[in-house]
Batch of 4 targets.
Target 1
Amino acid sequence: MVPLLLVLLLALILFGAGFAIKILWWVAVVVLVLWLLGFVMRSNTAGGGRGRWYRW
């Protein structure tokens, strides 16, 4: 009974980790798209394209 519970626990942990990693990939894609949009918008600003869209 204990090995069966350990296998089920391992499967649950791996499923949760896989779900979390997939969510992190989507977050990374959204951040990349926002960064690219900011880069394009920055280059189209009046003032020679020297505006900054971020604070750092």
Target 2
Amino acid sequence: MAGGGGGGAAVAMPRSKFKLPTGRKRARIEIIPLIDVMFFLLAAFMMVSLSMQKMKTPRMDLAVAKTASDDFKADLLNIAVERNGQVSLGRTNITLATLDEVLAVAAKRNTNTPIFISGDRETTHGSINSVLDRVRRAGFLRVSFTVESAGAPAQP
């Protein structure tokens, strides 16, 4: 007596004499429509993400900060990039070759010297990026971008 509950002999269940007119069907999961829906969603998200990208290089537009202040100290380097691409170290105009020499000398002293890069609102991203690349190639570790204060008058 296997697993039964009573004390009598096992009783076999009689088979039904009636058959279903449609027969017995198994449940079937259709995945083809699911694949179609997922492909449509993938294509839709790809098209939306491609249309969101801009192919133009934006101009550098520095943010305005309320706590910004002028800070010219001897133990840091202030590099400014004007809208025409001219580079200044402190208040002195220099060429990119001279900037490389100054950065090499300063890097020999200390690569932890803070470097502050600032740019005019109309300065192109390429000009700022060129200066940043030269600073990184010199080996400096502490590089920041400066902003103007919200209450400061605009530079002429």
Target 3
Amino acid sequence: MDSFFNYETLSVKLESSTRTLVITFTDAKREHYFSTQMLFELESVLSWVTNKIEVHSVLINSTASEFSPGLDMEMIRQMDRSAIEKFFTKLQKINLALFHLPQTVVIDLGKGCSNIASEFAIGCDIRFCDKEAKLSFDHSRKGLIPGSGGLGFLSTVVSPAMARNWVLSTQAISHEQLLQSGFIYQTYSESNRTAVIEEMLKNIREQAPIQRIQSKLGLLEGIKARLEHACHYEKQITKAALIAEDYKSFSKQDDDFMPAKSMGQVVKLTLVKEEDSELPDNVRPL
């Protein structure tokens, strides 16, 4: 079946046999990076499927072997701080929406993903990946932080200790660790990839719809307060972290990032600048 949304970065199809909405990342020209256009399209299709309770599951995958490399740093460097804040807030909103969807959300991460693509996977209910897959939360290597779920949502899926290890180490997480942590439900090989995922979608299709939805709502209720609290502090921390503008660095060398001891002075200067911009044109501080 052809995609029934005219999107630039996504293909959206309905698999009637399992009542699955299949969302495929197709933006190969931009290497499947997350972009403002992709976030707009994701928000649109998730808003649409929210009221389609006749759809039992949502499958998210990619035409690439690796689900997504996440951040397009060339795009980020061309955006001002306000635009970057809005970008991360939009992704956080989408990730939170995944927790609230009445459908069971399944994601196929292929051979892995990085930074914000890894954050996106947090909101999905059931995660699969290739046996050779690696995943990372490497935001700080790029002068950014995981402020779209990596700081607050991740510890509702894996243990707080595991979340701390992954975020602070920024190292690639092997599929063995992903399985042991519970982040990944099951791995597959290239030969049985389709069969493994189709079996899960069929299993979801055979569940009683009301009980399936109620079960997901019940699981959400147990973590809802934590998610709402996380939304607030993640936005604040993201805003503070952007002040240094380390995301403009083109290398991965620590010497190119702002020294930690300079942060306090930068924050003070930024506050003065923001207060100054709020004054009338004919009034300036002494």
Target 4
Amino acid sequence: MKRFFHFVLVSAVTLCTAVASIAAEGGPKCVPVKVKSEKDLVFKGGESLTFAVNYKLGVINADIAKATIKLDTARLNGKKAFHASMFAYTQKAYASLFTVKEQLDSWFTRDGLVPMRFTRTAREGNYTSTNSYSYVWNSAHPHIKAALNNSRRGDYSADIPLDACTFDLPLLYFVLRNMDISSLSVGGRYPMTFAVDDDVYNLHFVYYGKEDKKVSGLGTVKCLKFGFQVVAGDVFAEGADLYAWFTDDGNHIPVMFAAPLKIGQVQGRLQMFTGLKNEFSSLKKR
């Protein structure tokens, strides 16, 4: 039960962390992005998205969790920055079964999307975990200086390898949204690299092209469809993929994700949005 709830909530926050058990291989592997100057980004400070997370199994069809993603402007060490905040939690009706809270915060430059700081606080039942990252770029060997803690191990630290293609999870989400879609080919596989806890991980996604997707509460949305590879195990069946749909407009916001589990299926859907940089033009007129 613990691993299931943790998967549901973290997936809601990042739409792709369900594959975090794939180990990184080789050197730098970058997401194909547009020019990363602030004026050209598909998002701006003040944006806020709210998601509902639904679980289905037979006659069971319930929204068990909520997730929010917010982006604000900030200054860090005198530099202009974005502050991304992601928070997911079980609904009160299901908290008696298992309590999960996941908070991730990332600070990164407004020009260039360079990571500056990352923190994570997680509670899964009686288990707690924290991450605090400082990015050391001015070094012959750039690295992440990580201060870590969990309720099993206590306090510990790690120096994590760092290159220009390595992101923390909230920043990875925003980098994904700023992809150069014109450079992608339908059916193509593309790698990404991210760090969490004391490890660096590798994620590959597949671009499936454009698709109209009906989203409960929103309507039919013109989307870009992606598939994220997952590892078979306690949660996923062999050959399972996590699919995510991003708006095919100037915002590239996620409106839905879905993945089959060994028992049942999890889905996330966009419920509310404010502060978008561009018009939500992908919503088809009824």
